[in-house]
Amino acid sequence: MTYDPTGHLLLTPVDREAPVRVQRLRQLGMGEQPDPAFDEFAHKLAEVTAAPYSMVNFIDENQQFFAGLHTPEGAHAGTDLNAVAAAGGVSRFMARDHGYCPHVVVRRKALVLEDVCDYPRFAGNPVVDEIGIRSYLGAPLIDRTGIALGTICVVDTEPRPWGRAGLETIKSMAAELIEQIHRREDGGF
Questions:
Q1: Residue 9 has pLDDT above 90, yes or no
Q2: In 137-153, which positions are buried (b, 16+ CB within 10 angstroms) versus exposed (e)?
């Protein structure tokens, strides 16, 4: 576990790969704008897992960006956080210290949290109280250069028994999206 200079536990892991990731995302032309193909992928991911929320998430040094986003009400357009909140929608941006995707990127492994409240390290995350997240399933998007570009994930406001089937699903869906990203880079997407 990591501690700050005052001795307090840092709940968000240190991400030494972030500068290289940002450079790679820029090279790929991703991570700064919503992408209809990623929105479509997020919708497919929500259908496959029967989850109300799903994301294709790219992470830089300061924030997370949902280049692909599926919500139950479809209210996710925009980058103006105040306007999105006032409309009851979900923003495409989230602070880096919110949520669980930064852990997945740093760990470079899928993460299954059937009930986030069962894990003291994760139960105190701001998304629990602010958004009502109770379960999470995510996998890293590791490209051909070995860089973890971000994650795909699904979340629910109720505990979910994702189990081994959920873990295998999220990992295979991450592999599918990485193939799409590679085809795009090669000019075939």
A1: no
A2: bbbbbbbeeebbbbbbb
Phi-psi region of 78 (alpha: psi -120 to 50; beta: other; left: phi over 0): left
Structure tokens at 78: 């925009």
| Distance in angstroms (rounded) separating the CA atoms of residues 96 and 158 | 23
Whether residue 61 contacts residue 18, with contact meaning beta carbons closer than 8 Å, is answered with yes
Give the span between the Cα atoms of 4 and 169, in whole angstroms: 36
3-state secondary structure of 7: coil
pLDDT for residue 129 is more than 50: yes
CA angle 34-110-38, nearest 5°?
15
CA–CA gap between residue 184 and residue 162 (Å, rounded): 31
Cβ neighbour number for residue 67 with a 10 Å cutoff: 24
